[in-house]
């Protein structure tokens, strides 16, 4: 996963992981998806030999395994538990390798299951989809807040962090503002202000969230990076330093 090393270096996160007991919010658009960071946080956690719990409201388990395999992350060699938040039903007939470890039906059951897991990096992908099916912003924030409290409790006995990926549009803008107030870091993906450019897929802005001031070590520096997405890699670089420019 050398493609993400420049990102980790820019953030001064040698392990690629945010500090334990923190919440990181990722926002993206249809043309600049923040989900490209999921392999990064997943593999960084694997390298630290820490479990990952991935709850998706967007895709199946097989989708993530396919994407990560292309990027050199072999999920079957590590401790990854996939939680299906996309659809309800009986998945016992699926092959063992692609079967969800847990299906999100009743929220209290999920919170109980999550509290029984070891300290982990918990990734919520597409939580804004709850708005699309009729949940209010307050209810969605209660769900995120419950996950956050469990992660913070787990961080008392090992590394644990929460990563929330949200599609930013006119329907989720208010939710994003609310999550930023509960986050330590914000990763914001967007297209280039100057428009499309050969060799540059978009730009990433990383800034502290509202809870950053609560951290004891305040050494985080905001960053602005351009990035290029290809079939099996993501490369981050300073503006003006893409391979096409060089």
Short description:
The chain is 27% helix and 22% strand.
Mean pLDDT: 88
- What is the β-strand count? 10
Helical/strand content category:
alpha/beta
Straight-line N-to-C gap = 22 Å
Low-confidence regions? none
Could you tell me the radius of gyration in angstroms?
A: 17 Å
List key phrases describing it.
246 residues; alpha/beta; ten-stranded mixed beta sheet; 7 helices
Description:
- The radius of gyration is 17 Å and the shape is globular.
- It is an alpha/beta fold.
- The chain contains 7 helices and 10 strands.
- The mean pLDDT is 88.
- The protein has a 10-stranded mixed beta sheet, with helices on both faces.
Itemize the secondary structure elements and their pairings.
Blueprint: H1 5-11, E1 23-28, H2 38-47, E2 52-56, H3 61-70, E3 80-84, E4 102-103, H4 107-115, E5 121-125, H5 129-132, H6 137-154, E6 161-167, H7 173-180, E7 185-190, E8 202-208, E9 223-229, E10 234-237
Parallel strand pairs: 1-6, 1-7, 2-3, 2-5, 3-4, 5-6
Antiparallel strand pairs: 7-8, 8-9, 9-10
Helix pairs in contact: 4-6, 6-7
């Amino acid at each position: 996963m050398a493609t993400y090393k420049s990102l980790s270096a820019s953030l001064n996160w040698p392990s690629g992981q945010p500090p334990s007991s923190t919440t990181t919010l990722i926002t993206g658009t249809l043309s600049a998806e923040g989900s490209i960071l999921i392999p990064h946080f997943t593999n960084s956690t694997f390298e630290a030999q820490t479990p990952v719990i991935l709850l998706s409201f967007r895709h199946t388990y097989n989708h993530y395994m396919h994407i990560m395999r292309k990027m050199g992350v072999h999920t079957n060699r590590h401790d990854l538990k996939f939680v299906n938040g996309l659809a309800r039903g009986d998945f016992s007939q699926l092959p063992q390798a692609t079967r969800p470890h847990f299906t999100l039906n009743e929220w209290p059951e999920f919170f109980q299951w999550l509290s029984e897991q070891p300290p982990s990096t918990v990734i919520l992908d597409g939580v804004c989809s709850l708005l699309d099916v009729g949940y209010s912003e307050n209810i969605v924030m209660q769900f995120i807040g419950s996950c956050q409290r469990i992660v913070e409790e787990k961080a008392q006995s090992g590394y644990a962090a929460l990563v929330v990926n949200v599609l930013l549009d006119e329907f989720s803008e208010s939710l994003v503002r609310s999550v930023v107030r509960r986050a330590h870091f914000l990763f914001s993906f967007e297209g280039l202000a100057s428009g499309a450019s050969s060799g540059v897929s978009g730009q990433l802005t990383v800034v502290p969230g509202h809870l950053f001031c609560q951290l004891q070590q305040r050494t985080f520096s905001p960053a602005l990076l351009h990035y290029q997405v290809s079939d099996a890699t993501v490369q981050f670089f300073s503006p003006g330093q893409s391979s096409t420019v060089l």
